């Protein structure tokens, strides 16, 4: 038997005791030690967006734990592994469960320097933050290029992005709707804070040039306003939709300022990129700062916590102690 959160077609969700014969297909069984709650998990658990492909579903787009059994050649019992994305928690039973049966193709080895708890403090949010940083770097943005803006700063992606960029020497400006979190954001390394309301209303197609680059988790008018203020030749890594799915802008920043707008996806990112991102996290993220982002809960607290992340009330990262 194992314990898992299950969401059902009628919109209900509960922590249940399940028989292992109900586990889905897969060639690796994992004893899950920690999982997490990301924004997408909030959407799945509350079913505010139709993300679940079939019911009942065990949510949890992330997990960290130890291989119990494996018929996949790459993995042996006792291996410490991480899983992020690949539709886990949406189309395949996910990490909010004491046992997970998954494809060995989806797993990444856990860097030696991380515990399962630290890996989940990072989770999809932190790994996506690193993908965004790597995207800006590939574009050629360096610490001496100028200020980098991070929106949704107090959230999971935003918090980790600030910590990484600041450690790498960038001057980071954090956009937040929670001015009371300024001390937290400064402790992560933000050099300055701006009020997200200055970005959230429909704006002008081109504003004064300010940002060398930006990481945007909000979408909608925020992303349009960010694009309007990127300096000539700069870039935006757009990864989220906390404000909305819509995006209304004009061609002007693209054709007059050589703006590059990169979409950043974590779910279907290729293995090589994932492994590079996790290796970079092991090198470039201060685990002391990571700890300052974490709130730990148990499986029994997940249902209560899920709506809070959608309401923007969670600071940093939630880790779920599973095993
Ligand atoms: P969080 O809920 O932890 O953070 C989101 C933050 O966005 C909030 O903390 C808040 O920060 C800000 N925010 C909330 N509502 C609004 C609003 N109406 N307008 C502007 N800002 C708002 O989520 P995550 O950091 O985990 O994820 C952020 C986004 O990135 C989500 O949309 C998520 O789905 C997406 N994402 C995408 C991935 C991908 O693969 N493409 C992977 C991971 C995440 P503050 O209070 O500081 O303003």
Automatic annotation (TrEMBL):
This is Oxidoreductase. One of its GO terms (molecular function) is acryloyl-CoA reductase (NADPH) activity. Gene3D superfamilies: Medium-chain alcohol dehydrogenases, catalytic domain, NAD(P)-binding Rossmann-like Domain. It comes from the Bacteria. Residues 11-320 form the Enoyl reductase (ER) domain. The lineage of its organism: Bacteria, Pseudomonadati, Pseudomonadota, Betaproteobacteria, Rhodocyclales.
């Amino acid at each position: 038997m194992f314990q898992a959160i299950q969401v059902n077609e009628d919109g209900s969700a509960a922590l249940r005791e399940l028989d292992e014969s109900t586990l889905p297909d897969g060639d690796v069984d994992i004893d899950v030690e920690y999982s997490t709650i990301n924004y997408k998990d909030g959407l799945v658990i509350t079913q505010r967006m139709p993300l679940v492909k079939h019911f009942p579903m065990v949510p949890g787009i992330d997990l960290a734990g130890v291989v119990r059994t494996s018929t996949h050649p790459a993995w042996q019992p006792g291996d410490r592994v991480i899983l992020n994305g690949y539709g886990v928690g949406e189309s395949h039973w996910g990490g909010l469960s004491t046992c997970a049966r998954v494809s060995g193709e989806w797993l990444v080895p856990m860097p030696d320097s991380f515990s399962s708890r630290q890996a989940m403090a990072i989770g999809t949010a932190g790994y996506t933050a690193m993908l965004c940083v790597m995207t800006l770097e590939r574009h050629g943005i360096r610490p001496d290029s100028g200020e980098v803006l991070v929106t949704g700063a107090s959230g999971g992606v935003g918090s980790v992005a600030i910590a990484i960029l600041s450690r790498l020497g960038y001057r980071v400006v954090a956009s937040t709707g929670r001015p009371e979190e300024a001390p937290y954001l400064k402790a992560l390394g933000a050099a300055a804070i701006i009020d997200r309301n200055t970005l959230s209303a429909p704006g002008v197609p081109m504003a004064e040039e300010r940002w060398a680059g930006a990481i945007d988790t909000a979408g909608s008018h925020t992303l349009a306003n960010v694009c309007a203020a990127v300096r000539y030749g700069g870039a935006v890594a757009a990864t989220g939709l906390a404000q909305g799915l819509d995006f209304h802008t004009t061609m002007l920043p693209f054709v007059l300022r050589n703006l590059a707008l990169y979409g950043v996806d974590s779910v279907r990112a290729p293995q090589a990129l994932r492994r590079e991102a996790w290796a970079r996290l092991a090198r470039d993220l201060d685990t002391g700062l990571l700890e300052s982002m974490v709130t730990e809960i148990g499986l029994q607290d997940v249902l209560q916590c899920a709506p809070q992340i959608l309401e923007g009330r969670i600071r940093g990262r939630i880790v779920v102690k599973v095993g």
